[in-house]
Amino acid sequence: MLVKIIFLSLVISFLSNSVLAEDSIDKAFKLCAVFDGTGLLSEKCKVSGSNFSVDVSIDTSSKEAIQICKQIVGMLAKDKVYFDDGDWKIRIYSPFSNGKTIANCNLPS
Questions:
Q1: Can you tell me the distance from the alpha carbon of 65 to that of 59, in angstroms, rounded to the nearest whole number?
Q2: Which residue among 69, 83, 95, 104 is the one 20 to 30 A from 41 at the CA level?
Q3: Where are the alpha helices (DSSP H) in the chain?
């Protein structure tokens, strides 16, 4: 799992330069595309404009999900990728969490 987290971070770092001028919803869809491309998800990533969220489901522990969340937020902040149009967040679920989040992070604004 750690190798996939590192890969995800590198992909986000690579993509972040191309999203600086886009609006938050476009950035959210690009972030979803990155998640979908990793092979980590147990179902397709979803963007909710009304909830200002990027929702992912990963077969992992809550401890690892929190680390993934923090790492992604840190990389986006470092690369100055900001979600300005609302209180955007990443919500991580497990396929076994009965619809409850196992990690929740605010995206940089």
A1: 9
A2: 83
A3: 2-16, 24-38, 62-78
